[in-house]
């Protein structure tokens, strides 16, 4: 009898091991049929393993069919298993529907049922369902269960109702660390960072903030765009002897990416290596994105090559392709896109946006059209407004303005301000005054509080010599209290980020910097430099006044500071919040040649690498 039992157990384990080899539903059905034929589906252990595999892979719908049709009176454990698995699936609403089936079947609940349901509500940002489940758990006597209450706090917080979350939190006599983390997460998600930080500082010492506590507040600052503060908290976390986990490292890397803080990003990468933290898909994406956005594609590619094949998810491939797109390396982006598909990884909508962006920034019109017009057929991805926006930008940059305008008119959704804005900029670049004026009026109507819309529309009028209309547009902007975002550039040196604003004199060394720029300017003029004033279409008194303004642009001051503070031959890296103008672009090419420096500049949308008088964008930006 013992031998028979052992043989049966061995056969069951062998059958279950076949599950992990199933990549298609037809293969899963074969294993399922074998388990039914062999009588294994009477074993609770076998049922649990089978359902767990389906829920953790891409077969959650099949798990539902088996659970609802093949099992007779499943117990509470199996109901909870299904609800838990479905709450984490790509269709979390199915777990709520299954809960209704559970209620109608009169299956008994336990305290573990509700945290799984509330996780689904959090994933769906479903407030009404959260309140209904709150009522259910109160009715069933679980209102004081710490796990259920913490899940409620988190769900209310995630759905944006942090007042409900705070009310529940304040009722807890001794909130545990999960309670603190949940309510802080709610305020951080709502952008209430002052309140979130106050609560974070209030966590009692005996609760001992963990990596989740620190990650919650750090990621909140990153999402709020307060990246300097995020990195300060990350360093504080290290000083408090709480080892960063993968999520906190990814958040800190995201802050580095936005700031262009390459050295700090490298330090975090080195820390992960020394701490022997394995590079999973999330951390690989964060590292590739950081290096790409800090202007170092060689390091980004190095990270990608070091990632194990099984970890190279579509997200990792997309991060690399996006990096090449930002850097205007369209050919390399297309090559990696082709290579990705050969490895069996299917592109998603974000991947295709990256590919179309790469085509747009490099002028690969036919390649972009090929991807766009076949994406639904070849990749089962229906074009979204982001994909249409990329195509309008691609056609506009290439001077195909009529075709771009026709595409906007044929879009199945209403064009947003981003799409009209890219077409307006194309009209300005290619001097299509008539179309540009029409689009400018549309944009001001759509986005009346955006200063850039007025400025570009006024510039279009000025380009056509209609100075009265240009002045009228600027008066309208002034009367409405709309302010143009000033040009701002940053340069990071020895762990410190220095910020320069156009025309601003607040930097402690501004007089020395201006003197350095005058020296640079003299050398430029000795080498034939003449200012490009075309982008500066203000109705100013004369070219001398325009020239004075163009020499106050923030990126010029940042580069002058970089020349002052770094050794000869060192690459200068500058980040700018707006599109680089023609004059600054011309200046950077000349500076790179005269001073024998590489200059890497990230403007609002892309990278420029200046070397020996040339730019990687090929003057196409």
TrEMBL record:
<comment type="similarity">
    <text>Belongs to the PPR family. PCMP-H subfamily.</text>
</comment>
<dbReference type="InterPro" id="IPR002885">
    <property type="entry name" value="PPR_rpt"/>
</dbReference>
<feature type="repeat" description="PPR">
    <location>
        <begin position="75"/>
        <end position="109"/>
    </location>
</feature>
<dbReference type="GO" id="GO:0008270">
    <property type="term" value="F:zinc ion binding"/>
</dbReference>
<protein>
    <recommendedName>
        <fullName>DYW domain-containing protein</fullName>
    </recommendedName>
</protein>
<keyword id="KW-0677">Repeat</keyword>
<feature type="domain" description="DYW">
    <location>
        <begin position="528"/>
        <end position="621"/>
    </location>
</feature>
<dbReference type="Pfam" id="PF13041">
    <property type="entry name" value="PPR_2"/>
</dbReference>
<dbReference type="Pfam" id="PF20431">
    <property type="entry name" value="E_motif"/>
</dbReference>
<dbReference type="InterPro" id="IPR032867">
    <property type="entry name" value="DYW_dom"/>
</dbReference>
<dbReference type="Pfam" id="PF01535">
    <property type="entry name" value="PPR"/>
</dbReference>
<feature type="repeat" description="PPR">
    <location>
        <begin position="313"/>
        <end position="347"/>
    </location>
</feature>
<dbReference type="Pfam" id="PF14432">
    <property type="entry name" value="DYW_deaminase"/>
</dbReference>
<feature type="repeat" description="PPR">
    <location>
        <begin position="280"/>
        <end position="310"/>
    </location>
</feature>
<dbReference type="GO" id="GO:0003723">
    <property type="term" value="F:RNA binding"/>
</dbReference>
<dbReference type="InterPro" id="IPR046960">
    <property type="entry name" value="PPR_At4g14850-like_plant"/>
</dbReference>
<dbReference type="InterPro" id="IPR046848">
    <property type="entry name" value="E_motif"/>
</dbReference>
<dbReference type="InterPro" id="IPR011990">
    <property type="entry name" value="TPR-like_helical_dom_sf"/>
</dbReference>
<feature type="repeat" description="PPR">
    <location>
        <begin position="176"/>
        <end position="206"/>
    </location>
</feature>
<feature type="repeat" description="PPR">
    <location>
        <begin position="210"/>
        <end position="244"/>
    </location>
</feature>
<dbReference type="Pfam" id="PF12854">
    <property type="entry name" value="PPR_1"/>
</dbReference>
<dbReference type="GO" id="GO:0009451">
    <property type="term" value="P:RNA modification"/>
</dbReference>
């Amino acid at each position: 009898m013992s031998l028979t039992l052992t043989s049966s157990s061995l056969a069951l384990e062998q059958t279950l091991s076949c599950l992990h080899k199933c990549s298609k539903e037809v293969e899963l059905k074969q294993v399922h049929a074998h388990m039914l034929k062999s009588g294994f589906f009477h074993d609770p252990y076998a049922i649990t393993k089978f359902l767990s595999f389906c829920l953790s892979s891409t077969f959650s719908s099949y798990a539902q069919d088996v659970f609802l049709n093949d099992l007779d009176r499943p117990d509470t454990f199996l109901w909870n298993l299904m609800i838990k698995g479905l709450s984490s699936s790509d269709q979390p609403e199915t777990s709520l529907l299954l809960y209704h089936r559970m209620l109608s079947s009169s299956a008994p609940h336990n305290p573990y049922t509700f945290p799984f349901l509330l996780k689904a509500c959090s994933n769906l940002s479903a407030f009404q369902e959260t309140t209904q489940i709150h009522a259910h758990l109160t009715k069933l006597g679980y209102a004081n269960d710490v796990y259920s209450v913490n899940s409620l706090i988190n769900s209310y917080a995630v759905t944006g109702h942090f007042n409900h979350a705070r009310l529940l939190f304040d009722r807890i006599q001794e909130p545990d660390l999960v309670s603190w983390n949940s309510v802080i997460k709610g305020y951080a998600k709502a952008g209430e960072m002052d309140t979130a930080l106050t609560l974070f500082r209030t966590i009692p010492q005996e609760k001992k903030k963990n990596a989740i506590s620190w990650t919650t507040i750090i990621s909140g600052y990153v999402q709020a765009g307060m990246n300097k503060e995020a990195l300060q908290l990350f360093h504080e976390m290290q000083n408090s002897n709480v080892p960063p986990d993968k999520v906190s490292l990814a958040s800190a890397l995201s802050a580095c990416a936005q700031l262009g803080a390459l050295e700090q990003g490298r330090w975090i990468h080195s820390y992960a290596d020394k701490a022997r933290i394995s590079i999973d898909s999330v951390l690989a994406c964060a590292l590739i994105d950081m290096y790409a956005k800090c202007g170092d594609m060689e390091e980004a590619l190095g990270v990608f090559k070091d990632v194990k094949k099984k970890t190279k998810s579509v997200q990792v491939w997309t991060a690399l392709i996006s990096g090449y797109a930002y850097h205007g390396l369209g050919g390399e982006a297309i090559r990696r896109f082709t290579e990705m598909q050969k490895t069996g990884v299917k592109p998603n909508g974000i991947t295709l946006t990256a590919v179309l962006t790469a085509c747009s920034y490099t002028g690969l019109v036919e390649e972009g059209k090929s991807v766009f017009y076949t994406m639904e057929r070849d990749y089962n991805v229906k074009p979204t407004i982001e994909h249409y926006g990329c195509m309008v930008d691609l056609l506009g940059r290439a001077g195909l303005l009529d075709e771009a305008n026709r595409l906007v008119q044929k879009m199945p959704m209403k064009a947003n301000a981003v799409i009209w804005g890219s077409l307006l900029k194309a009209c300005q670049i290619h001097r299509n005054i008539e179309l540009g004026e029409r689009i400018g009026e549309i944009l001001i109507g759509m986005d009346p509080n955006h200063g850039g819309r007025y400025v570009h529309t006024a510039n279009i009028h000025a380009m056509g010599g209609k100075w009265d209309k240009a002045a009228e547009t600027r008066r309208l902007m002034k009367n409405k209290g709309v302010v143009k975002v000033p040009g701002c550039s940053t340069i990071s040196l020895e762990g410190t980020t220095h910020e320069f604003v156009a025309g601003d004199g607040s930097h402690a060394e501004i007089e020395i910097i201006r003197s350095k720029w005058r020296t640079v300017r003299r050398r430029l003029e000795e080498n034939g430099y003449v200012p490009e004033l075309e982008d500066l279409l203000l109705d100013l008194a004369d070219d001398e006044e325009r020239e004075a303004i163009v020499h106050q642009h923030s990126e010029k001051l940042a580069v002058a500071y970089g020349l002052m503070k770094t050794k000869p031959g060192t690459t200068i890296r500058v980040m700018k919040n707006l599109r680089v103008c023609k004059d600054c672009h011309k200046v950077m090419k000349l500076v790179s040649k005269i001073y024998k420096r590489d200059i890497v500049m990230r403007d609002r949308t892309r990278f420029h690498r200046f070397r020996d008088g040339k730019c990687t964008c090929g003057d196409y930006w």
